[in-house]
Recover the amino acids of this structure.
């Protein structure tokens, strides 16, 4: 079965990972801007990173036959530095019209601080001004429910970003219903030690349905598995779900969400 990984940080993966993903049916990836493992000190560091995301990484993915799309932002962990964050946000429009850029992301909250909220809102201002899709990171573990509520509240304060143009990622059992009831898209991250397992993600699909929801590996430099989406496919098959239902979650839904962006020029596999 063909699949799309809608959230995976391929700059921290090897070319061998692309090859393995293709052999399992991956036809496209979506790569949000994220934390490099350290706080970058200048706007020029982000400019170089955005050049990598929009220039080199699509070429590297193409060597393996994978279509590569990306998102741009300064992530929540670095949003405590408000002056730098504002410099980065002001620089993002230089890259927005490049091929394969899907929008603003992954923005959101990390520790649910006032500074993070300020920069989240300013990213939303940019997304509204430029009519971009939005991909949102929700906090980890004990901060997730509070952070998700804060994020939804900030989104619902405004009327210039339609809910269907927003994906709230890293949802789990205690946040998925809240996000879906707001009319937003949802992403479930399949991590080996945190967030959802393939079995938990299948449970969520069985309980809350397969509309406006997708699964991703969020593979990065930490413990993660770039083949997590195929693991989910296998879990769903073991439970007797139809191929059409599985395909909706791992292929059709990402296509539907991303297709709202005019720069999403996807070549369907033959």
């Amino acid at each position: 079965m063909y699949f799309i990984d809608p959230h995976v940080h391929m700059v921290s993966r090897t070319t061998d990972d692309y090859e393995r993903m293709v052999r399992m049916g991956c036809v496209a990836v979506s790569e949000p801007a994220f934390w490099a493992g350290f706080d970058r000190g200048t706007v020029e560091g982000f400019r170089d990173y955005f050049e990598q995301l929009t220039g080199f990484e699509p070429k590297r993915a193409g060597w393996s036959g994978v279509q590569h799309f990306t998102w741009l932002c300064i992530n929540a962990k670095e949003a405590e530095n408000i002056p730098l964050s504002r410099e980065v946000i002001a620089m993002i429009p230089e890259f927005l019209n490049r091929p394969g850029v899907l929008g603003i992301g992954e923005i959101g909250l990390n520790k649910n601080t006032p500074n993070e909220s300020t920069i989240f809102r300013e990213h939303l201002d940019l997304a509204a001004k430029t009519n971009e899709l939005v991909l949102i990171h929700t906090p980890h573990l004990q901060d997730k429910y509070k952070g998700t509520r804060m994020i939804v509240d900030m989104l619902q304060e405004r009327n210039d970003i339609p809910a269907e143009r927003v994906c709230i990622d890293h949802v789990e059992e205690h946040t998925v219903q809240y996000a879906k009831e707001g009319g937003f898209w949802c992403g479930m991250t399949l991590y080996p030690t945190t967030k959802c397992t393939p079995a938990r993600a299948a449970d969520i699909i069985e309980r809350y349905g397969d509309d406006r929801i997708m699964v991703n590996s969020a593979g990065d430099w930490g413990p993660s598995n770039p083949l997590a989406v195929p693991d989910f496919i296998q879990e769903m098959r073991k439970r007797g779900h139809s191929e059409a239902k599985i395909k909706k979650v791992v292929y059709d839904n990402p296509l539907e969400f991303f297709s709202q962006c005019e720069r999403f020029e996807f070549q369907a596999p033959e």
